[in-house]
């Protein structure tokens, strides 16, 4: 598997707080890579650096083997990384297709005027949605009529609309019940099936063990361990996070 994204020895301080202290992570193309760790471990800081929201003090970030500097969220998006933050930032009073195309509406020219191309936005929105979920079929439906899991689907469609090949999800199941959580895990699997690389931040060990190919555990700003294969179980994840152990137990 080629390496899609790597961070090399990244440091980030907020004043006197050392949020990241030499973090090197490799995310392989096409995998679901989860980032776990206790509160304050540095997960969100790492994601903000990938998303261009924060810049590292030291260290480098490579996408497809090329060093990149993301000064803004747009720079990250242009490089093919789309981040879905925990708050989702969907507009509940607007329709599904309007949410998917928010800020980047498709237009057409009619007699020299630029008009919104609603028909194309609706059909493109349907195309993105059908990659993820076949129960959401009315692109005119208002987002406030959707469940939490369905709203995640809308936010993910927005990422697909930007042609992202890396989708980063920050705690996508944090506010959801059991059934909705299962729907979101299914969305994550669909992304992988469609060839996307997924970075998933989660506290929910069962969710992570159910979908992730590999898991990196952060602890006080450092990589504690990366788990994969048979060692990637919910019990093992909890064990490492609680104990702080760095050696693999077989
Ligand atoms: N904007 C900020 N200003 C000051 N300290 C921050 C800021 N953001 C995060 N921190 C601190 O950096 C550390 C890592 O935080 P964070 O990356 O949010 O961890 P996690 O997402 O794993 O809970 C914590 O000690 C947190 O309090
Ligand atoms: Mg966080």
UniProtKB/TrEMBL annotation:
Query: Where does the source fall among the domains of life?
Result: Bacteria
Stretches assigned to the ABC transporter domain: 5-245
Q: Which UniProt keywords apply?
A: ATP-binding, Nucleotide-binding
A molecular function (GO) held by this record is: ATP binding
Database matches in InterPro entries: AAA+_ATPase (IPR003593), ABC_carbohydrate_import_ATPase (IPR050107), ABC_transporter-like_ATP-bd (IPR003439), ABC_transporter-like_CS (IPR017871), P-loop_NTPase (IPR027417)
Q: Which family does it belong to?
A: Belongs to the ABC transporter superfamily.
- What is the protein's name according to its record? ATP-binding cassette domain-containing protein
